[in-house]
Structures
1.
Amino acid sequence: MAPAASTSAVDLTSEILHALSDKDPVLSAETFPQVPFESIKAALDRLASRSMVTYEQVEREEATLEPEAEVIVSHGSHEARVFEAVREALDGLSIQDLESKVGDKTVTKVGQGKAFKEKWIKKDGNRLVALVDSINDVTRDQLRVIQETRTHDPKILADLKKRKLLKMQKVISFTISKGPKYALEMIKEETDLTAETLASGSWKTATFKPYNFNAQGADQHSGALHPLNKVRHGFRQIFFEMGFTEMPTNQYVESGFWNFDALFVPQQHPARDLQDTFYVSDPPKAAKPCPVSAADKQDYDEYFRNVRQVHESGKYGSIGYRYPWSEDESLRLVLRTHTTSISTAMLYRLAGQRQDGRVPPARYFSIDRVFRNETVDATHLCEFHQVEGVIADYGLTLGGLMEFLEMFFAKMNVKDLRFKPAYNPYTEPSMEIFSYHKGLNKLIEIGNSGIFRPEMLEAMGLPKDLVVFGFGLSLERPTMIKYGISNIRELLGHQVDLNFVQNNPAVRLDKD
Ligand SMILES: N[C@@H](Cc1ccccc1)C(=O)O
């Protein structure tokens, strides 16, 4: 909304209207020498929008005198001052006397040189004597003209400018003339049709302010998406573009079974230590996996047995880990340490679609919170968001996984990936994904990936020739890079600046 007109702005519009009434209908900004340019322009725009005046903006160059030139205008040029001093002394002056008479070393020195050149003075022995009776102080005359008119012959202006006696300034002025709706007073324009104006009939004669369809609306105080949500949105778009469906991840608590055992993570694995994983003590134990709906015809008991067996003694061509697998351990409750627990449950559901020994190919993704018992520092919290994708299909190869990851990351302008062999209990082979970061000038790890092991997939009843890729990365890292945040506590937690959340633009993952 436009601010209400201040009194001085009203005065100015009325002054402009009056000035136009009793003068020639063309008038320039110099009529209001004390008023700043912006105010005149604003007043003119108000009048012009009502067709009361028309105006044109005129730009020209004006010359203004430098302080030294002001001195010349009042006392004469250096050479004229030297000449006058010499002429006044009837039998000439020594240089020292000249200097004390003029009272300025520079004036004496510069003026002498010029007076010699003009042949106004000459040297007679060691005295200076005048050669003429009077001189024309051209410089002073030129500067006087400029002082009054602010301009002169271009050649003269250029010469004086070179001598640093004046500077040129751009001056903007307005040529104003009466518009078709010119009047002495600005009529108050009504902005609303009210009950009163209708009842009194004053609407018939009132002038209504036209709609300004170009006006900007007032800032709205609305909610704002957190930067993590904006980046999450970008990732979701990429997944949808690539034919993925979103997995339901709305549970933070998992059993050890879905978080670890089903993934062929042995029960002694360090990731399952208290130091790494948060355990839930109440309730003390999860129920055994069971059908999730009436339509779920899977044999969970058999799956549970398969998992136990593949850990304890091996199956599906694997010799297993050879340790006594504990059912209680697998039924402990944990805050999920990765969303791969959900991917696993989804793959088991996919196995339930098996018909004539085949399941359909599938692409799943999720972006949600996971929890790890980490030491909190500038880049780690006890929780973060994991971006995870799973692709199940026939005839997939490791090269295909690399190619897919290159395509996926290229969609966010992350190119030149490097892959490094890694270890996950549930994938073989496994690869860490690295990318060269221009800003940090080094390779940084951006994700983890691999091909799920048969020990995991076959225990679910998935066909032997089905290959399943998996990959995961954090949402926080790309968000911190995109928004230039170096401390994760500026992104999450009580230290987050709400203005930062409110004012940040949407992120474009395809821009650097
Ligand atoms: N679960 C892995 C990511 C991953 C998912 C699927 C396959 C391979 C790796 C992690 O937390 O880092």
2.
Amino acid sequence: MTAQIIDGKVFAARVRGQVAQGVTKLKARGITPGLAVVLVGDDPASEVYVRNKGRQTIEVGMASFEHRLSADTSEADLLALVKRLNADPAVHGILVQLPLPKHLNADLVINAIDPAKDVDGFHILNVGLLGTGQKAMVPCTPLGCLMMLRDQLGRLEGLNAVVVGRSNIVGKPMAQLLLGESCTVTIAHSRTRNLADVCRGADILVAAVGRPEMIPGDWIKPGATVIDVGINRVDAGAGKTRLVGDVQFETAVKVAGAITPVPGGVGPMTIACLLANTLTACCRAHDLPEPEGLTV
Ligand SMILES: Nc1nc2c(c(=O)[nH]1)N[C@@H](CN(C=O)c1ccc(C(=O)N[C@@H](CCC(=O)O)C(=O)O)cc1)CN2
């Protein structure tokens, strides 16, 4: 058996199309959703992500506000910028690109963002709302994973879901979302005993542990749906590198029912869901109905 490949690029393009339609409707009412992205420092990967965010924001018809600050920016200056963006009515979504330089306290900065504009869903209030099953801003990567799972499987109720990884950005919110779908959820991680056996029990396996190709095909239940969140750059010889996921794709594809590739799986959904969250935040700010199919 060979797994169906879940194409994240195609899926993300579909989501962006839905977002663009929502933006057109808002513009007809004289409202333009706006997304502010803050980049501190010159991390090359973050540079690429921020550039792509800005480009895709404009492509769906939103206003893009980019703030690039030097690596030695003080916490006070960054907090002052966040405060200005909180107060700016043209800005419906605020995102501070992570990681921040070491001297800045990311928790402090994220929790200074107005929770209604926290399109990353990282603010402690949104974390609490999601954890208690209330309307929240949902972190983009897990939201994208859930959209793909719903599309693939329909109802998820009663399925065994194993999330490997316990980060605040992916693992924990992913587990909350799957619980919200009435899955039986296990959060596993690199120190879990008998990790292979835990994974073998999964109808849905979400790998978000950040270890290149840690999960081989023989840890996967035949027919399972595998969502690989890992984006790991490894040596490809001859001075080159390549991207691999947390799942060993070559062996997993022979066992799984469906699987996301790396690259081209979950990654593109992250920015598409950021745009979806910005549209949602804008609708909420104006007391308008939320876009269908783009929120949980
Ligand atoms: N404030 C935030 N910071 C970070 C987040 C986030 O959601 N909010 N996530 C990541 C980076 N990220 C977006 O910011 C992101 C990562 C990967 C991709 C993507 O499309 N990946 C491609 C491969 C890209 C490549 O060639 O390197 C793929 O998987 O196909 C988009 C966005 C950390 N920081």
